[in-house]
Amino acid sequence: LKAIQSGMKTPYLLNKFELKTSAQLKALYLDALVEQGQAAPIPGRSARTGNDGPPSKNIHVNKRGSLVIPRELVDEMGFKLEDVFTVRKSKSGISLKKTS
User: Fold this and answer.
1) Strand 93-98 vs strand 60-61: parallel, antiparallel, or unpaired?
2) What distance separates the 2 farthest-apart alpha carbons in the chain?
3) What is the pTM for the complete model shown?
């Protein structure tokens, strides 16, 4: 909160807090405001800070055989609608690479 309220610029904050997108910064800022009681929580949105812990990094396979990535993780990674990825097998499991 202090960093944003002091007027620090977005590129500096992204680097300082090791974030990839301004959407991640905005989400963390909102979470901090809610935690401090300075903003009302958005119904149905779980915070990324506090006692709830970080968003789940787990994905699962649904009935149709599709991999399902939790919305929080999609937001955290900065993925957008219509993004395209290639998938390859690696020594440690699988690797996704954004192609679009």
Assistant:
1) unpaired
2) 49
3) 0.44
